[in-house]
Write a structure and sequence with these properties.
With 415 residues, the protein is mainly beta. 0% of the residues lie in helices and 45% in strands.
Length: 415
């Protein structure tokens, strides 16, 4: 049922790495890692994590129901995960390993998104938003953030997806997405995907729909964070000569800046790597992590900005030599960042983390769990709440207990 492509590589165990039960030595940033049983059904996927302003961690995922319909669900982390609540349910959904739902939480509301098909084509789908004002108990009717004027025919393969949501202090929620309205109605299409943004105030309606970049990578995830100067969105750019490096746009004094490249890797690739960036912000400090294979060398990097994303320092290489990407990043409160990524090994892939500073200092890599680099494993997710770091990933084989499983774990940051 999930659009997973080829079968995954053999999963070499799903137990959490025992070395993380206690720090191996003082450089390790994580200690006391333990797995938390996730409330998702067997076969679930499209996992994601969000943090509320009060520090609550929210897990979302898509369950496949016995009648083959889908349900977007959420759970809140206390000592364990709470009983799941259903956000939305439907049958004509677009389910994909790389384009997955998200939740954003303000002091007043939760907003969630998912994807529904617009036409019979495999990749003809659009975005749906819903909001809750009672902690996720009930949800509003869905709305579309993209108010396209182009009428796509029955053969259309245009899509609207790869959404990032961010909460604003005024209670509104921002949204950015990859927009396919300029790609045409034929199988080949024409034109590039573009990046568009809007805001949603619930009963106040949708804000202006703004195109902030007219040419971006087709199917890399976007990411967003809120600085003290305003929100930033990072994504993989695309030039006419197929350079696909990571770019950033910022909202400053109510207006979006022109796109700027975070770091000029000059990765020339005539295809989408399906490997988007991650971003974290605290005050004016911003960290952006990403994957590149420029010059034929695979790398995971992180770069820091001290001016809310206006400029970035030299990137720090994070990986151990064989990265598969699928990155995450959090800020640690001392100016450093913790970056997560998939690293290929002879025994399969591993979710690893490493601490890095703006001056180029790197800690030792730690393995969070073994997994697969195949599509069915999805994208590992990581968030921070206080001194806790929460992870979510998908185990394609489910540990032999009835199919693929969404798994989660929590660790403490070392003092």
């Amino acid at each position: 049922m999930y659009n997973e492509g080829m079968n995954p590589t053999r999963l070499f165990g799903v137990a959490l790495a025992a070395v993380l039960l206690a720090a191996r030595h003082s450089a390790d940033p994580l200690i006391q890692l333990r797995e938390l049983p996730a409330p998702a059904l067997a076969g679930a996927g499209q996992h994601n994590l969000a943090v509320a302003p009060d520090g609550r961690v929210i897990l979302s995922w898509v369950d496949v129901l016995p009648d083959t319909s889908y349900a977007l669900r959420m759970s809140v982390l206390g000592g364990e995960w709470s009983r799941p609540r259903t956000i939305a349910q439907g049958r004509d959904w677009f389910i994909n390993w790389a384009d997955f739902p998200a939740i954003a939480v303000t002091d007043r509301v939760m907003v969630a998104h998912w994807l529904e098909r617009n036409a019979p084509r495999s990749y003809a789908y659009g975005i749906r938003l819903s909001r809750s004002t009672d902690g996720g108990a009930t949800w509003s009717a869905a709305v579309k953030p993209h108010r396209e004027t182009v009428v796509h025919g029955p053969q259309s393969h245009a899509y609207y997806g790869f959404v990032s949501l961010w909460p604003m202090p005024d209670g509104t929620v921002g949204a950015a997405w990859t927009d396919g309205r300029n790609t045409g109605d034929t199988e080949e299409g024409h034109g590039f995907k573009n990046l568009r943004v809007t805001t949603w105030a619930g009963t106040g309606g949708l804000g202006p729909e703004i195109e902030v970049d007219d040419g971006i990578c087709d199917c890399c995830q976007t990411a967003a964070a809120v600085t003290s100067d305003g929100p930033v969105v990072v994504y993989r750019d695309r030039t006419p000569n197929e350079i696909r490096d990571i770019a950033i746009v910022r909202q400053v004094n109510g207006a979006w800046t022109p796109p700027a490249i975070v770091s000029a890797d000059n990765w020339n690739i005539n295809a989408c790597p399906v490997n988007g960036p991650a971003v974290a912000a605290e005050g004016r400090l911003v960290a952006v992590a990403w994957y590149t294979a420029a010059g034929g060398t695979r790398r995971v990097k992180v770069a820091f900005s001290a001016d809310a994303g206006a400029t970035f320092g030299a990137p720090v290489t994070i990986d151990d030599g064989r990265p598969a990407g699928r990155v995450g990043v959090i800020l640690l409160g001392d100016g450093a960042a913790l970056v997560s990524w998939l690293e290929d090994t002879p025994a399969g892939a591993e979710v690893r983390v490493r601490r890095a500073t703006p001056t180029g200092e790197r800690g030792d890599a730690q393995t969070v769990t073994r997994t697969s680099a195949g599509r069915p494993s999805g994208f590992p997710r990581m968030v921070k709440s206080g001194d806790r770091v929460v992870f979510a990933w998908r185990d394609p084989e489910g540990g032999g207990v009835g199919g693929a499983r969404v798994r989660t774990a929590v660790a403490r940051l070392a003092p």
